[in-house]
Amino acid sequence: MRFMHRRRTFQLTAPITVGGRTLTERTVLELQMGERYAEVSPLPGLHTESIDDVIRLLPEARAMQKKVRGSFLEKLTALNNNLAWQGLPPSLRLALEGMLHGSVEDFERPIVDLPLTARLVDQDPGGDLSHLAKAPAAKVKVGRRDRELEAALVREVRDALPEGAEIRLDANRAFSLDEAVALAGAVDLTPAFIEEPLADPGEVPAFCERTGWPVALDESLHEPRHADLLTCDSVAAWVVKPALLGLLPTLQLFDRAPDGVTCVVSACFEGPVGLGLLMELAEVAPGHPAPGLGTVFWLADDGRPTPWKKTS
Fold first, then answer.
1. How far apart are CA 26 and CA 15, in angstroms?
2. Helix, strand, coil proportions of the chain in percent (round to 5)?
3. Lowest mean pLDDT among 63-67, 70-74, 76-80, 296-300
4. Are 20 and 163 part of one and the same domain?
5. Whether residue 142 has pLDDT greater than 90
6. Would you place residue 261 in the very low, low, confident or very high pLDDT band (cuts 50, 70, 90)?
7. Structural domains counted in the chain
8. Are residues 176 and 76 in the same domain?
9. Based on CB atoms within 10 Å of each CB, which residue in 131, 239, 244, 278 is the most buried?
10. pLDDT tens sequence across 106-134
11. CA quadruple 53, 57, 58, 64: dihedral positive or negative?
12. For residue 59, what is the domain's CATH number?
């Protein structure tokens, strides 16, 4: 079966800063195998691999993929038992593993229809928030402005959302304990959760005790020194980025989630093909919250693709 790849570049509606790098466009690598498509989406500043790295690895990865047999989950398990496969970049593993499945039913987990994705808000107060009028949830980036501006933005988002919609905050570990507590005191609401609020995640229990705010884990999920947080009573959600894990580790993380903890499938600015797989994963995620795929609205156009090339 012919295996092809091509680059596809999207302009962004506004610059994004990831890992200290400012991006104005997003390039992904689309894969085609017969009637099936996938996307490899390493994000500069977040992933260590580049598109060029992925292209060089495609023949080796494809050779391993072709050898596995059985049902989808059997193929997935066989690949992930292979040390060479484990050594591939997670963004590439996710794409090739996802390419093996035919539909969400192949995940063999309960499936639930989801509300629309949460919208991502990263701006100063006073901007246009009309796009939130029908959103089921909004995630507000905090830790980037002074406290009063942050509090004002959160209140504006609350007023722009429909009744019953969730407000989620994402601090990216920007705060000390006292700074995070001060923000909670300045905001006249309790969010669904605040994601990674503290520079020192070990202080999360103290933050929750002082504020009553629920917390979501992202980076802390994968750091052994913070393993005790996975069962902390005040942790309400796990933010799961499949492009940093691969497909089987994502499903295994779902299986590890304690009762009452939701798993929010979150994007790394994937293109439409990559977001399709993430939406399917969100349909089987514990708790079935609105996924964090609002980055799709930051893609300004349908992308500039290069011609398809055969993978050697």
1. 10
2. 40, 25, 35
3. 296-300
4. no
5. yes
6. very high
7. 2
8. no
9. 278
10. 999 988 876 678 899 988 888 899 999 99
11. negative
12. 3.30.390.10
Residue 82: DSSP 8-state: -
Contact 101, 95 (CB under 8 A): no
Rg value, the chain, Cα = 20
Give the C-alpha separation, 86 to 67, whole Å. Answer: 15
Are 264 and 216 in contact, with CB atoms under 8 Å apart? yes
The CB-side HSE value for 249 (13 A sphere, CA atoms) comes to: 18
Please write the tens of the pLDDT for every residue from 187-239: 989 999 999 999 999 999 999 999 999 999 999 999 999 999 998 888 999 99
* Helical spans, DSSP H, in 99-225: 147-160, 177-186, 204-211
Average pLDDT over residues 174-193: 94
In this structure, are residues 97 and 76 in contact, taking their beta carbons and an 8 Å threshold? yes
CA separation for the pair 252, 14 (Å, rounded): 35
Residues 40, 138, single domain; the answer is no
Q: Are residues 214 and 77 in the same domain?
A: no
Q: What is the mean pLDDT of residues 55-70?
A: 95
Q: Is 230 left (phi over 0), alpha (psi -120 to 50) or beta?
A: alpha
Distance (Å, whole) CA 220 – CA 150? 24
User: What's the CA gap between 13 and 24, in Å, rounded?
Assistant: 8
Asked if 170 contacts 139 with a C-beta cutoff of 8 angstroms, the reply is: yes
pTM of the model: 0.92
Residue with tokens 């909670």: 184
Distance CA 138, CA 120 (A): 6
Percent pLDDT > 70 in the chain is 99
Say how far apart CA 237 and CA 217 lie, in whole Å.
Answer: 7
Torsion of CA 298, 247, 59, 100, to 10 degrees: -100
